TrEMBL record:
Identification of the protein by name: Class I SAM-dependent methyltransferase
Organism: Nocardia stercoris
GO MF entry, a single one: methyltransferase activity
Top-level taxon: Bacteria
UniProtKB keywords: Methyltransferase, Transferase
Keyword Methyltransferase carried by entry: yes
């Protein structure tokens, strides 16, 4: 009976006859606002593996806002990994749902993902507008809607996309936190604190792991000041290497990055 009820519920969601889960948010967006997370998705080993291995890769951009531009940009960039990737933009506000274009479909939906079973979900600047207490439930609902090997990106950024942070999750829970920023407009790593995902933004206080990481990153950044004449990218590479030497488990990228990026396992920043 339970299985039959769940099957019926998902059928109603897919048909668009069930009510979306969530609340209408501000919907602000802009051209290239999410370019840093897009670049990371295209080059991240795990994301590429999951998209490449999927029989019919489906990506959902949840809460694309008042304009679908960032969804269209995401589709164009992910097609470098899988030319046949299907992308669907979901919005809970029916007035924001636009006709499909450039091979991307748009529909009404919320945290229930309109009954879809995507390989990847991007939810940027959505949960930031909810109370912190709503995050675990929203994560659970989103993870339940993923394909068996699906991934979820819950992130936030500033209005111009110069400061970004996101959590990568799979069906079992959070896997990592990534901070990415414009090397030329951010003075120090802890400036990203104001853009931490909702689950962490109130945890940047002494005693919490995220505070320990950001404090150490600022210290390493200051220590690498002698490299400033060579540019902020060179300086950050030295600071990141220092963090690794001091026991912080930063991922070591295998290529030169346009952005300054710091990725750590979730266990290194999880709230106490």
């Amino acid at each position: 009976m339970v299985e039959r009820t769940e099957t019926g519920r998902r059928a109603r969601l897919a048909a668009g006859t069930a009510r979306p889960v969530g609340a209408i948010t501000r919907g602000t967006t802009g051209i290239n606002r999410l370019r840093r997370s897009d670049r990371w998705l295209v080059h991240d080993r795990l994301v590429r593996e999951r998209l490449t291995a999927a029989t019919d890769p489906l990506v959902v951009d949840l809460g694309y806002g008042a304009s679908p531009v960032t969804t269209l940009e995401l589709a164009a960039r992910l097609r470098r990994v899988r030319p046949d990737v299907a992308v669907v933009g979901l919005e809970i506000d029916p007035e924001r749902v636009v006709p499909g274009r450039d091979g991307v479909r748009f529909a009404r939906g919320g945290f229930e993902l309109a009954g879809l079973r995507p390989t990847l979900v991007r939810a940027f600047n959505v949960l930031r507008q909810y109370p912190e207490s709503a995050v675990p439930g929203a994560w659970e609902l989103l993870r339940d809607g993923l394909s068996p090997d699906g991934l979820l990106v819950d992130g936030t950024c500033d209005e111009l996309g110069r400061r970004c942070a996101w959590v990568l999750l799979d069906r079992t829970g959070p896997r990592s936190l990534t901070l990415a920023w414009d090397p030329f407009t951010v003075d120090r790593p802890s400036d990203l604190a104001e853009r931490l995902p909702k689950i962490l933004i109130h945890r940047n206080i002494p005693g919490e792991r995220i505070h320990t990481l950001l404090t150490a990153a600022d210290r390493a950044w200051a220590h690498a000041a002698s490299l400033a004449p060579y540019g902020p990218r060179v300086r950050w590479r030295a600071a990141a290497a220092m963090l690794r030497d001091n026991g912080f488990p930063l991922a070591d990228p295998r290529r030169r990055l346009r952005d300054n990026v710091m990725t750590v396992p979730w266990a290194a920043v999880a709230p106490l």
